[in-house]
Each structure stands twice: as structure tokens, then as C-alpha cells.
Design a protein that fits this description.
Layout (H helix, E strand, L loop, with lengths): L1 H9 L2 E2 L1 H21 L3 H4 L21 H4 L4 H20 L3 H18 L6 H14 L19 E2 L2 H22 L2 H4 L3 H5 L11 H4 L2 H19 L5 H21 L5 H10 L10 H11 L1
Antiparallel strand pairs: 1-2
Length: 291
């Protein structure tokens, strides 16, 4: 058992999985930051809609670089600008670790500046970025590795931590839902589809059918349980990942929950088996490098 755990966490494997995660997480950081530009003053500036400092318990740790720089509109733009540059460097693998640390600290600062606009996807984004910093995710497909001719291997402990956390998210989400009466009786999806503040595109033949909504309710809980447990069974992993991605795309189509679905899709991509390459074109490139 100990030998298997040691192999699972520390036996060197090609770093393609963590490199893929670095690129996808970096892209979501950039896109998310650019999307904040039109509302910077409303969300983070001195005249923001809400000040969240009062949300912190006295003495609770928090990082608010914007306030430390004076809290002005210039401070907001400075922190976001540094974050964007660092996120770009992290994505392309230019001084990857330094860029990643800066992106992580500025991301925390932006999140701590206004907690009210966040969701659990932002928490998942932070933990994924944290683990990617401390592994050689810049060792391939990056500026830092431009002179390397082979895909290196490394201990996958950081990727495993992301994978375990991802499975834990799904497992405890399903358990939490099973504690709710509306999830057990099959009506939860019906009520969720009536949350007009989150509505994007509806599909009336499904949303107006109680039978269909009950099936969707129970299926979503079942899928989350499977993604938290059965996904570790090798022959089930790829089908569950593909079904999970489809599940999140359907939610993204019907509900407006900023970035959450895309972050979870990236985490599911991070569950892709080590021996299977997600992008065939990259697989061919790897083979050519090895030869």
C-alpha cells in the first residue's frame, strides 16, 4: 500500500499534465483579469459599491495590496496590471516560478479586496495556481524550455494534489446536496432553473417538465458522486471526464456563474490519465522530440 502511494505521488512521469494545467490556468487568469477592466472602480476602487473590510473578523489574515498602495484608482490599475503581466509570463512559461508567485499574490489581493463578487471557482483557481508554482510546469511548451529537446519527467505530487482536491470538491458537493430535501425529492434543478439572477439561456421543453428536472437533479448528484470516487478507476476515468465536461458546458449555457464552469472544466482536464495525451498534435510533437 505504501509502495503504491509512493509511486502515485512521486514516481516520475512526463510533465505534460502539469504543463497543460499551467497553460489553461494561465489563460483563465488573463481572461478573468481582462473581464474586470470595465468594472475596476465599481468593484475595487475608493468609490466601490461595497467595502469588504468589515467582512473580515478582527485579526483575520488578508492580503490587500490595493489598500497598501493607497486604495486609489491608480493603485487598483497598478495591481491589476502587475497581475496581468505575471499571468502572461506564467502562461507562456517566462520565468515561470517568479511569474507564478507574483500572479498568485496579486490574485489573492484582488480576491481579498472584494469577496462579494467571488464564487467557489475562485477558491479552486487559487489552490491550482499555488500547486503549479512549486512544480516544473514551465519545463515544456514554454519560453524557459525553448532550448530543451526532450519532454522531461518529474514527480507528479503537485498534479496529484490538484487531482485529489478536484475529486474532493465533487464528492463533498454531492454529499452536501444529499442533505437537502429538494435534492433527494428531485426538485432542486427545477428551482435552480428559476433563479432569474443567474439565468442565461433556457430550454423550456426540459425546464418545464417536472419529470425531466427530476432526472437532471438525480443525475447531477450521481455524476458528482462518480467524479469524486469512480473517476479513480482507470477504464471509467476518460468517459467520466468527458461527461463531466459536457455537464459543466450545459450549466454554462443555461446559467451565468462567472468562470466557475470553465475552472472546473480545467480541473477535469487535469484528471486526464498520465499515459494519454489530451491534444493529439502535442502527442505527435512529443514523439518527434523523443526520437
Amino acid at each position: 500500500m505504501i509502495h503504491k502511494l509512493d509511486s502515485f505521488f512521486f514516481k516520475p512521469i512526463p510533465i505534460t499534465g502539469i504543463v497543460r494545467m499551467r497553460i489553461l490556468i494561465g489563460l483563465i487568469l488573463i481572461i478573468q483579469a481582462l473581464a474586470l477592466l470595465p468594472g475596476l472602480d465599481h468593484f475595487f476602487g475608493p468609490d466601490a459599491f461595497v467595502s469588504t473590510l468589515s467582512l473580515y473578523a478582527p485579526g483575520a489574515p488578508h492580503l490587500r495590496l490595493i489598500d497598501w498602495l493607497g486604495g486609489s484608482g491608480t493603485a487598483v490599475r497598478t495591481v491589476l496590471g502587475i497581475h496581468l503581466v505575471a499571468a502572461l509570463g506564467f502562461t507562456i512559461g517566462f520565468f515561470m516560478r517568479t511569474s507564478g508567485v507574483i500572479a498568485y499574490l496579486t490574485l489573492i489581493s484582488i480576491h481579498h479586496q472584494n469577496l462579494t463578487i467571488l464564487n467557489s471557482g475562485d477558491t479552486a483557481l487559487r489552490f491550482a495556481l499555488f500547486f503549479l508554482i512549486w512544480c516544473p510546469s514551465g519545463g515544456a511548451w514554454s519560453v524557459d524550455s525553448r532550448f530543451k529537446t526532450t519532454i522531461p519527467e518529474h514527480s507528479p505530487w503537485a498534479l496529484r494534489m490538484i487531482q485529489l482536491q478536484t475529486a474532493t470538491i465533487y464528492l463533498f458537493t454531492a454529499i452536501s446536496k444529499l442533505n437537502g430535501h429538494s435534492w433527494r425529492d428531485g426538485t432542486a434543478a427545477y428551482y435552480a432553473s428559476r433563479l432569474w439572477d443567474f439565468e442565461r439561456f433556457g430550454f423550456d421543453p426540459v425546464f418545464n417538465s417536472l419529470t425531466a428536472m427530476k432526472i437532471l437533479t438525480w443525475a447531477s448528484v450521481g455524476l458528482e458522486l462518480a467524479l469524486g470516487t469512480l473517476i479513480w478507476i482507470p477504464f471509467l476515468r476518460i468517459p467520466l471526464i468527458l461527461i463531466g465536461i459536457t455537464f459543466h458546458l450545459c450549466i454554462e449555457y443555461s446559467m451565468n456563474i462567472p468562470w466557475f464552469e470553465w475552472i472546473m472544466i480545467i480541473l477535469l482536464v487535469g484528471m486526464w490519465p498520465d499515459h494519454r495525451t489530451f491534444f493529439p498534435c502535442m502527442s505527435r510533437r512529443m514523439k518527434s522530440l523523443k526520437s
